[in-house]
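Homework help board

Subject: predicted structure for assignment chain

Our instructor gave us this sequence and asked us to write out the predicted structure in token form, then describe one feature. I got the tokens but I'm not sure how to describe them. Can anyone check?
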Amino acid sequence: MIANYGYRDGSGEYFIIINTDRCDGCGQCGEACPQDVLEIIINDYDDVVAAVTEAHRNKIKYSCGPCKTTSGAKNLPCISACKPGAISHSW
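My token output:
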């Protein structure tokens, strides 16, 4: 399943995308995130997977902004830390 966390507004769309079929729930993405955007949860199918915290879901543009500025949009720490390649973004 593809889980899209974020929002769309007049200036664009801002989403962290997690492919829960690829996610192995290791938690490396959450540890790599300096803004504590990601957490490990048990989803509706009893799978242990990464998810964006409720507090960050509607402010991805701002929460992920510092990493986007310093590391470039393609090299976000959470994406780099995800060995199975389950995390991507759209902005």
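Reply (TA_rk): Your tokens look well-formed. For the description, you could write something like this. The mean pLDDT is 91. That's the kind of observation they're looking for.
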